[in-house]
């Protein structure tokens, strides 16, 4: 034991090799290309490290900043977008690839044709359905992508779409190297394109061991501000408690998504810092508007009035969420503060129920979200609180548990009365909340948990999508929110915060509102 | 000696044959067709399925398939992992070597502490020291090893923060795997942070070694103590004492050589519990060894990996046990005449 004591008493901080950072990440990514998958693991591991997009979204979620495109313009018809590309951008030079030329328009064409063009040599490589791009209708929206000259690219759309730029700015719309694609084709090794990735991002791929770690090294010829870290290691640790333990022992410098009930402990320790960011998500309670009595808007409003959100914020979120008064988070430019749901009022709720012909209440199933999410870390606890609230107005709630697959298929069929679920936006455009959650199209696609199909609402959001003037869109989304308060197909409950924790020696790490993590400006002291 | 050797060798061949048959049958024991077991989520293309059918000779009879399985093993063609397409043989070598290093260091620690404690206990048989050591070893033997490992993590990693709790070296060190023995690889690595890397590796191995070594250590204490006490009651020891040799001289000249002649056999018998414990502890400390690999393969239903893991570990245990038997027989002719074994 004396020997052990001697070993242990040596200073903990032996010189760290190079300027490196170890980050305890959520899980093994299914590929190294975020075009293929919307999984949080893939986005976290790859998007902001290895790749760049044509443009970036500003923190206000409204305007765009140049990235690989330095400027862009839309023609008057709203269907032709022309991007001027940045010069002298270098792709990663690694053990498996040496770029023969800098980034140019061919790379943009290659990256987007891969998604929309079924005859593209790489379309079926990786066997992906490009779920993000399909969910926003990208293949049916983009007519062509052409290189006008080496530094100009033009996208032609079938119809104007005000969400197009937002979608290009997401973590999924990354730019790959056409040069690398050709080299792999020539070698007959196309399958490697998503396994040994090449991009223009601040770090390049170095080593990967499944279920264990991913090592990235800094991209020395990065076009932006060169990253301060020489090396970033993602220590793949799916277990939340294990991530916390590794942060405590110093094996990780930063960790993803600390569990809500552990945050208090971390906040009390001065050697760690916890970062928060309001997430672009919403946790809500959706009513199946196809089944009586929930097809009556008065009943839905009564149920919404009956729930008290304050205890939920305390008991379920431990203060890591804000009360949602609309589907849109307050940070969104489409948010309208005047269109907020009425506050807790059980008396008024009983009156409304009586008006709708249910003075004695009724029985109601609540389906529980079987996984933990930032917008709902504990759906059972939330449902128990709701159950108690509903009892006050005579409604008897029954909690229903399903495993993930049964849950999803049951919801698509509309077997539920009501469900506690939520949504995380992929980009800052309000359309990304309104359309996938409540449109008639979403009901057909099986993602509309309220089974709600309303012509007036659809007309509002369609008009907003086609409108090119910002003020017009804002006004339309405001109308949509007022209409939702009136109709109440879903009750917004909370906007969960995205959280991460790091040692105090890690400087410059921020939380990205749309997922992923950016190490390019991080330093270690 | 030759007859003994041949007898042992026969035993080895028969056991390995049975083990390989068992590991081969795993594919057929899984529910569904063998091809379903190799492709549990149905994600493989027809061409890939075709390749699997050829690789395992799945269209032929049971014994032809077995012959194909054995020839694949001898050709080093163990298939590729379903999860990450890395050749299973490479993975096996890397993870098994890493398990072995942990097991050897735990065994070394166990011998270094267990044997002297056992000798002293036997020498001062009945004293307070003996009683303390005996009861401590009894406690050590009855503690579940995973509880003990978790306590070590709680106290020394999370509490005092002396040691890291997972992996075998800090992830920022980049040590290429050449010999698969970490210390040698560090020495070979041309890295300015060599010393720091070595230090990191040492700090990483301490907790799992402590956790594993409890089992062989307590066993060695008890075996050493019991055999020495047993020996000291033999007639020739009594005679030596009667001739006037001191207790110390008797221990040193007669009892210990006698004990050590069967020592290697005891160590051999500890191989199996040692490896089993190591595999459990590996999982707790996230040590990239065979145990962790086996569990990941089980979860992912990666049958070729499970087969490889099972076969390698069991063949290794059998080989060690037979080699220690042979060594014991070579050094001590008396052992050769045992009717069993």
UniProtKB/TrEMBL annotation, chain B:
It comes from the Bacteria. It is a multi-pass membrane protein. InterPro entries: MetI-like, MetI-like_sf. SUPFAM superfamilies: MetI-like. The keyword rRNA processing does not apply. The chain crosses the membrane at residues 9-30, 102-124, 145-163, 205-224, 263-285, 305-330. It is found in: Cell inner membrane; Cell membrane. This is ABC transporter permease.
